[in-house]
Amino acid sequence: VQLQASGGGLVQAGGSLRLSCAASGRTFSRYHMAWFRQTPGKEREFVAAISWSGGSTSYADSVKGRFTISRDNAKNTVYLQMNSLKPEDTAVYYCAADTRFGVVQSTTPDYWGQGTQVTVSS
Fold first, then answer.
1. C-alpha distances in Å from residue 75, one per residue of 18, 20, 51
2. Do residues 34 and 96 make contact, with C-beta atoms less than 8 angstroms apart?
3. Bridge partner residues of 117 (DSSP)
4. Which DSSP helix (H) or strand (E) runs through 121?
5. Could you give the CA distance from residue 86 to residue 25 in angstroms, rounded to a whole number?
6. Where is 89: in which H helix or E strand?
7. Which tens digit of pLDDT belongs to each residue from 48-102?
8. How far is CA 52 from the centre of its chain?
9. CA 26 to CA 16: how far, in whole Å?
10. Are 6 and 80 a contacting pair, CB within 8 Å?
11. Which helix or strand (DSSP H or E) is residue 7 part of?
């Protein structure tokens, strides 16, 4: 499956952004999806994941209550709504896919999209 992330940009602290990740190539609804982020010099970290049906979600503690992951299987797209953004949310955000829900929450999903830069100014 090919993944294309978009929606990043520059926003002030307290603002909102919505990231999108469009999938193509294979049956999107077979895949659990996740978002990760990475800053220079640091390891890629898990942000949020959603099961193939959308019935299960999980979040990193640092984004709980501020970020919401969702998906539209009819549009082959997964979203990350980011509210109350903080400067420490600044990173390159990546979407990922895997058929195993446990794996998609780790750093080793089978499929990755290119990153989209999110910059939060103070």
1. 16, 11, 16
2. yes
3. 92
4. strand 116-121
5. 35
6. none
7. 999 999 999 999 999 999 999 999 999 999 999 999 999 999 999 999 999 999 9
8. 14
9. 31
10. no
11. none
